[in-house]
Amino acid sequence: MKERKDRVAQMHLPAGYQMEHDPDDLWGDARVIVNIGPTHPAMHGALRMVAKLNGETIEKSYCEFGFTHRAKEKLGENRTFHNFIVYTDRLNYCSALINNVTYVRAVEKLMGVEVPDRCIWIRMICCELARITDHLICVGINAVDLGAFSFFLYGFHQREEAYTLIEKLCGARLTTSYPRVGGLMADAPEGFEKELKAWVLKTREVIDEMDELLTNNKIWLKRTVGISVFDKEKCLQYSYTGPNARAAGIDIDLRRDQPCMFYKDVEFDVPISQNGDVYDRYMIRIAEMRQSLNILSQCADRIKKGSIWTEDKRVRIPDKDIVHNTMEGMIYHFKFFMTGFDVPEGEAYTQFEAANGELGFYIVSKGSPRAHRMRIRGPSVWHYQGLTPMVEGEKIADMVAGLGSINVIAGELDR
Amino acid sequence: MDVRQPIATNGGDWLTKFGELWKKQLTQINESFGSSVQEVRMPPEYPTDVPIIYVQKESIIDVLKFLKEQPGFEYGFLADITATDEEIDPRFEVVYNLFSHQHKCRIRLKVRVSEGEEVPTATSIWLGANWAEREVFDMYGVKFKGHPDLRRILMDSRWVGHPLRKDYPLRGYQLFTDSEPVDPTLLE
């Protein structure tokens, strides 16, 4: 800096000329305030970030959200427990099945309903399929943001194939509403396990291919290694969970540590990394998809024929032939869908390792068919809160990488 | 049927796993904060999945810090801060859901607070408590003493009322056609 100042001093400048600014500080005291979002191609959903820039470096920023707030928690207090299933799809819409399953498990936990084995295996298949689709879209979109488009298309094709499988289960691709309290909407079709296994084999190849395409790519490494670092201490301060926390060395996976369903009966590893940058989050997600594929093939092997509905009469939706052919069945059907079932008084926090982190439903019931309090703890809120300290002092282009890598989903963020 | 039975059986897995640990922890909390602990609700006597400790609002920060740092507790992970509207006096309950990475168990703290009263902020313990407390303020109007930036978070800053209160109507729409401008004071 001194050298440049000396050189400027040696120049033959017009009389009266004064150098006001430090030549290395391009903008002097001037800072540019940039508003990114709520509708901006670089933001994932309706998020808003306002950044104060010095050149290209973010000096200070703040985040806003709530643009797609749909009052889910208020609706949870005004809809019956059965009616609320369909709202849970719209939380994290990249992995709607995980939300559905976690929600119905939360209500079952309050009621003490046990579901049969086949139902649990199908729910596990649902969760892992949803986890893979979520991770595929996350790493894919993260790469698109940084200019690697073909990588995204490899994953996207396989994601569509996964949605075809989900469609075979429940008839819907994105907003599934598949599980019911005490069971499932429909049984898996004949030969589903075989199709699942074929999909697992194909996806394994595709993930290997994606891995080869991007993991050692020089441009990708330059754009991601050491970018948007969020270390272990910060992760604990900001309650980071899921792949983002594991990328920073927090060895926690609720599937292993607070096992539910049959997760303690299947074998899988929990990938951990230490650096907590964009690259590590990407690597964790790639590794986790492989583990999910392992779980899926184990599920496909172990699933057996049987009932998908609980014997508990309180939540059992009557079969259609009973509804159409008997008077009692018809009355019961109407009572079930118009008034709903009573959930006994009590409160419970049900957590599950969703694709992004800890998804929790804290339900307080006062003994009526509607919840007294329906709290949804979405991981995205806590992840998005950490974005401001994460990108401080970084280039504005790296903010896009950081935001993509923590996988903030607006539906879950705004609720 | 006894309505209290279901949770006890369903949470039985946790109860057998952590029952002893919880009991030990609760006696230790009672020893250290005897006068501040208003009430303890334990499964299976009360229909809940984890123990609920009602703490006086003045000492909630000390209890949270104790739970976070004391060996044998290590509830270092703040899972959630939320509130409920009970429609009696004291009207609100602020709920802290904690998780221990070491022991893999959970615990729940509650603070009863009347309308207009303030709860001390937990942002000195977890920076991440910031937005959760803002959301409680936005949805219920419970204020947090010492909070660095207590603004509305999900609703617009011009919103009137607190939507998750039980007396707020389900369809209490308020329409704003323009977006909020950039606030330069937040960037200083």
Quickly describe the structure.
Chain A is built from 18 helices and eight strands.
Structural class of chain B: alpha/beta
Rg over C-alpha atoms of chain A, rounded to the nearest angstrom: 25 Å
How many distinct helices of chain B?
A: 4
Strand content of chain A: 5-15%
CATH architectural group of chain A: Orthogonal Bundle
CATH top level class name of chain A: Mainly Alpha
Oligomer: heterodimer
Percentage of β-strand residues of chain B: 15-25%
CATH fold descriptor of chain A: Cytochrome-c3 Hydrogenase, chain B
CATH superfamily of chain B: NADH:ubiquinone oxidoreductase Nqo5 subunit
Average of pLDDT of chain A? 87
The helix content of chain B is 25-40%
Largest sheet of chain A: 3 strands, antiparallel
The major beta sheet of chain B can be summarized as: 5 strands, mixed
Q: N- to C-terminal separation of chain B?
A: 60 Å
Number of domains of chain B: 1
Order of helices and strands of chain A: HEEEHHHHHEEHHHHHHHHEEEHHHH
Shape of chain A: elongated
Q: Give unreliable regions of chain B as ranges.
A: 1-6
Examine the secondary-structure arrangement and name the CATH architecture of chain B: 2-Layer Sandwich
Description:
- The complex is a heterodimer of chains A (415) and B (188).
- Chain A has helices at residues 2-10, 72-78, 85-88, 96-111, 117-145, 149-170, 192-214, 218-224, 232-237, 242-246, 254-257, 278-302, 320-325, 327-338, 379-385, 387-391, 396-406, 410-414; strands spanning 32-36, 48-54, 57-64, 179-180, 183-184, 346-353, 358-365, 371-377.
- The model of chain A has no long low-confidence stretch (mean pLDDT 87).
- With 415 residues, chain A is mostly helical.
- Chain A contains 18 helices and eight strands.
- In chain A, α4 packs antiparallel against α5 (117-145) and α12 (278-302) runs parallel beside α17.
- The longest helix of chain A is centred in the first third of the chain and has 29 residues, at 117-145.
- Helices cover 49% and strands 11% of the residues of chain A.
- Chain B has 188 residues and is an alpha/beta fold.
- Chain B is built from four helices and seven strands, in the order ααββαββββαβ.
- In chain B, the strands form two sheets. A five-stranded mixed beta sheet of chain B has the order 1-2-5-4-3, covered by helices on one side. In chain B, strands 6-7 form a two-stranded parallel ribbon.
- The longest helix of chain B is centred in the first third of the chain and has 22 residues, at 12-33.
- Chain B is globular.
- The model of chain B is unreliable at 1-6 (pLDDT under 50).
- The chains are: A mainly alpha (415), B alpha/beta (188).
